[in-house]
Specification:
This protein has 3 helices and 3 strands. The protein is of the alpha+beta class. It has a single domain, classed as Double Stranded RNA Binding Domain, CATH 3.30.160.250.
C-alpha cells in the first residue's frame, strides 16, 4: 500500500522552472510541506519523492493523519493492522 500511495502522490506533482535562477521547483498538491528544488527536472523529481517518503515516516511517527491521495489511504491500512 505504501508504494501505491507514493505513486499516487507523485502523479499529483507539479513542477515549474523558476526564471530567476533556472532551477526546478516541485510540489505535491494537498500535502503541506512536500516540495523540492533542484537544478534539473529529474533531480527535482527524485528529491520530491525523497521528501514525500520522509514526510510520511515523520507524520506516522508523530501520529499525524496522512491524507488519502486519489483513493489510496495509509491510515485505513494502519487501522486494520
Amino acid at each position: 500500500m505504501l508504494i501505491q500511495y507514493i505513486q499516487a502522490a507523485m502523479r499529483r506533482a507539479h513542477y515549474e522552472l523558476l526564471e530567476d535562477d533556472g532551477t526546478f521547483f516541485g510540489r505535491i498538491e494537498g500535502l503541506k510541506g512536500v516540495w523540492a528544488n533542484a537544478t534539473t527536472l529529474e533531480a527535482c523529481r527524485e528529491e520530491l519523492q525523497e521528501v514525500l517518503e520522509d514526510w510520511i515516516v515523520v507524520g506516522l511517527r508523530l501520529g499525524r493523519v496522512i491524507p488519502d491521495v486519489d483513493g489510496v489511504s495509509l491510515m485505513h491500512e494502519l487501522e486494520v493492522a
